[in-house]
Design brief:
Blueprint (H helix, E strand, L loop, with lengths): L1 H19 L13 H10 L14 H9 L1 H10 L3 H4 L1 H7 L11 H12 L3 H4 L2 E8 L3 E10 L2 E10 L3 H22 L8 H16 L1 H14 L6 E2 L12 E5 L4 E2 L3 H6 L4 H19 L1 E3 L7 E3 L5 E3 L5 E3 L2 H16 L2 H10 L9 H12 L12 H14 L6 H20 L5 H17 L1 H20 L1 H21 L5 H35 L1
Parallel strand pairs: 4-9
Antiparallel strand pairs: 1-2, 2-3, 3-5, 6-8, 7-10, 8-9
């Protein structure tokens, strides 16, 4: 019960900070009815007024005020415009995950404890932090490699960060469950599943060995790719709380003057960035899902070097084929083909019209052809795509939404390098190569060979499958005769769970209202 009241307090504080920063100012009350409308009006009574009012993006300001977990939540939701809308997602992109560094002494203790050796035996030099975020901070250090001093980057996890994020995630889950319960139209967006995805993402970021593995995997995938690479990993100096990797001396991709001074071709870098990202997604099914300019550098050889793989995306064979065929259809302006790909993949319900869906896709694709990136609003295009998903009752696919959002970020960075860039023409060689390789004769032979192997494995499981079917049939027959067993304790447990959930919703609501009333009286 104590933990429930702690959650109520966190939810109430969140509601108050949202109201104070003017988040509810952005809501259109014409679409709101009943008690919810009254509740929003009460919340707006505590809004900042006059010069103190939050300007620009109030949601981003509120999340920054609430702390690191909420900043991470905002950054994650910026990758999910299907949930929060394209405008809010764009505002959340302004969130800066820059925190005050924790003390040098604590960082050194964490490194020595995690790697089970004195710091002096691990690094010949260990400098102060050069960057600090909500989950970890980075130090520049040096290692002695057979008498040669090599610079390295050392990422150190913040102390106690896992416990704090676990605590705040409970509040996120509580809010998501109440939203699903009291707002049925939003269930299509699966808020609880969104928090599940955030929890998995944060769990990966909390174990720096997993980020090292992601860098290693991408390094293997891209070792023969022209113009793209990731830093090498020092596995001997890497553990759950510490990641040591190659120090990158390069020009940030958003430092255009620095890139020109170093003799780099900016339009060529823009095309290279888009083509590299599409290779990773379609060929490898594994891509960097946080490719903002702060994570991208250009080294002296002209390679784009990507760092910070805390957030990655993965596509299965079905999703890779879907992406390639969809892009190819848009490039060729074959909207019927694109529509059929959606239906074959099961992303659009079978009771919808292929022809009508193709027409909707045409309305998205045609305005982008023959126009430069400078003339095309990717935010507007995204908004239209999400409106189409609602019209045709498409279920949210988190992996595709992350891919789509990352593609928009990559396109934005590439456009900053070359305002005249045409994303379709830049994508065409990579997409066509994939189509030729995997949907041509060689790909069909490989698919047939893989299918034969899977069939052979399936045949070996047939005897066990028959036994399971016989047992299931016997159990069903027994239940038909005797009925479904449901003892008294089970019934009591179900009743108590439902009562507890109902009390939680009502108490959370009254806690928020009571706290707001108190703030109004004290103003």
């Amino acid at each position: 019960m104590l933990s429930e009241f702690a959650q109520f307090g966190r939810i109430a504080r969140t509601g108050y900070v949202f109201a104070r920063e003017g988040v509810f100012r952005e809501l259109d009350l014409h679409e709101v009815r009943g008690p919810l409308k009254l509740g929003i009006r009460l919340l707006r009574l505590v809004e900042r007024r006059g010069p103190a009012a939050t300007k620009g993006a109030p949601l981003a300001a509120a999340l920054e005020r609430l702390g690191p977990s909420y900043v991470k939540l905002g950054q994650f939701l910026a990758t999910r415009p299907d949930v929060v809308g394209a405008v809010i997602a764009r505002d959340l992109e302004t969130l800066q995950d820059r925190m005050a560094p924790f003390p040098q002494k604590i960082a050194e203790e964490i490194v020595a404890r995690s790697l089970e050796r004195p710091l002096a035996q691990l690094y010949s030099e260990f400098g102060p932090p050069v960057a600090a975020a909500s989950i970890a901070q980075v130090h520049k250090a040096e290692v002695d490699d057979f008498g040669q001093k090599l610079p390295v980057a050392v990422k150190v996890l913040r102390p106690d960060v896992a416990r704090r994020f676990a605590r705040d995630l409970k509040a996120f889950y509580a809010i998501a469950r109440q939203v699903e319960r009291f707002n049925p139209p939003v269930r299509r967006l699966r808020p609880v599943a969104v928090v599940d995805t955030l929890a998995r993402s944060v769990a990966f970021e909390m174990d720096l060995r997993l980020e090292a593995a992601a860098l290693s995997e991408m390094g293997e995938n891209t070792k023969n790719d022209p113009g793209f690479r990731v830093p090498g990993i020092d596995w001997a100096r890497t553990a759950k709380d510490v990641l040591t990797l190659e120090w990158i001396d390069g020009v940030p991709l958003n430092d255009h003057e620095g890139l020109r001074a170093a003799g780099h071709d900016l339009p060529a870098l823009g095309r290279l960035l888009i083509q590299s990202f599409l290779r990773h997604a379609m060929r490898d099914g594994f891509f960097h899902a946080d490719m903002h300019p702060g994570n991208l550098f250009v080294d002296a050889a002209g390679n784009i070097v990507a760092v910070d793989l805390g957030i990655t995306g993965r596509l299965g064979p079905k999703e890779k084929r879907f992406l390639a065929e969809m892009l190819y259809g848009f490039i060729e302006r074959d909207y019927r083909r694109v529509a059929e790909v959606h239906f074959r993949a099961g992303y659009v319900p079978a009771d919808q019209s292929v022809e009508e869906f193709a027409r909707a896709l045409r309305s998205v694709g045609e305005p982008t052809h023959g126009r430069t990136a400078q003339e095309v609003s990717m935010a507007r295009l995204l908004t239209q795509l999400f409106e189409i998903t609602e019209i045709f009752h498409m279920q949210t696919r988190p992996e595709l939404i992350m891919l789509q959002k990352t593609m928009v970020v990559v396109e934005g960075v590439a456009r900053s390098l070359d305002p005249k860039l045409d994303m379709w023409s830049a994508a065409e060689p990579v997409v066509r190569d994939w189509i030729t390789r995997y949907l041509g004769p060689i790909g069909k032979i490989e698919d047939a060979a893989e299918g034969a192997v899977e069939l052979g494995l399936a045949l070996t499981e047939v005897p066990e499958l028959i036994q399971r079917t016989q047992r299931l049939a016997a159990n069903l027959e027994d239940m038909t005769v005797r009925g479904f067993p449901l003892d008294a304790q089970t019934v009591r447990n179900i009743g108590e769970a439902e009562a507890k959930r109902s009390r939680f919703g009502h108490l959370a609501l009254w806690a928020i209202v009571g706290l707001l009333a108190l703030f109004i009286v004290l103003r």
